[in-house]
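pls ignore typos typing on phone
zinc ion + seq
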Amino acid sequence: MAAARLWAAAQQPYLASALFAAPVLLDTECGTIAVDRAWNIHADPAHVDRFEAPQLGALLLHLISHLLRAHADRAQRVGVEEDNQREWWNRCGDAEINDDLARTGILPPVAADLPFDFGANVGELVEAYYERPAAGPRQWDCGSGCDDGDRPWDCDGLPHDQRQLLRLDTAAEIHRCHAREPGTVPGGWLRWAETLLPAQVDWRRVLAAHVRRELASTAGRVDYTYRRPSRRQDTVADVVMPALHRPTPNVAIVCDTSGSMHDELLARALAEVEGILTRAGLRQGNVRVLAVDTNVHAVTRVTRAADVALAGGGGTDMGAGIAAATELRPKPSLVVVLTDGYTPWPAQAPKGAKVIVGVLEQPGWPPGWDPPPWATTIPIGPDLPASAPPA
Ligand SMILES: [Zn+2]
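k done
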């Protein structure tokens, strides 16, 4: 059983914490390998001996899925009560689970129903399958953790709160696995995780969209200027002709380096913002970075985030940083502020520059003061990837 559990955790690492939290109880009376409502795995040694470790591992992945997906609670909600209803619910639950398992090339040696075994479409939930006419008795008893029917061997196990925490933890791990390596987590698990956790909007995509929009509007602001001679000046001798002028987008990044900001978090966010600006087509020379607490410490034209000395470390006033940014020449058309939000804000928007505020959320910290309505605010989650994307 220990080898099977290791094998299972290696196959689907996002289920590992749930797999290792569920106690395995060897039970010669139960005549099956099944789960109860309190997350105990009851295993009859006679059945354990029948299978190789990978087969047992596949069955463990299957059983833990019944628990994570709360099939017992859902059976209760749907009104599964009679024995024959429980048997059909068990098979429908098996199909919901095996659908996703099969996509990763794994099928348990028993309880192996798939949706097409009873003529149903793949990718649906147990409730949808259950509405179909029952297609015969189950071949394998997955326990009360699947169909909510009492078994004589059921016993106390994980408390309710802990089960729910394991579900949330698993959902978060699924999001992380999917973000790291899209395609590794089957669609059914992704949809399940999304129902448990609030939809996560990727701040990088939101920020990139705003940056591209601002840069496009600046580049499109074609205007006449008298600073350069017009190409048509020689056609009229007496009149000074204006030339057409297309402004180059300039961006200033204002970094909050006050004591409340976590240096590593800020450096990583800065690296990502620079990556976004570069991919949006901005040249490095057109990005300036200001380190700001209550004073403005450095105005630099940087080529890499690592080059910025994140000076400061005192109190915070991002108003000072925004004011300093708009006094730069050439004047930036876009100011990106990276802060934890523990800062006062100016009452008025700066003239001639759009402001995007990235609020870095630190785990365990309450949110800072709201950025002003004249700025576009993007929350930046604490789950920044360890390495910056390629610039
Ligand atoms: Zn099952």
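The domain at 203-380 is CATH 3.40.50 (Rossmann fold). Confidence is low (pLDDT under 50) at residues 301-305, 384-391. more later
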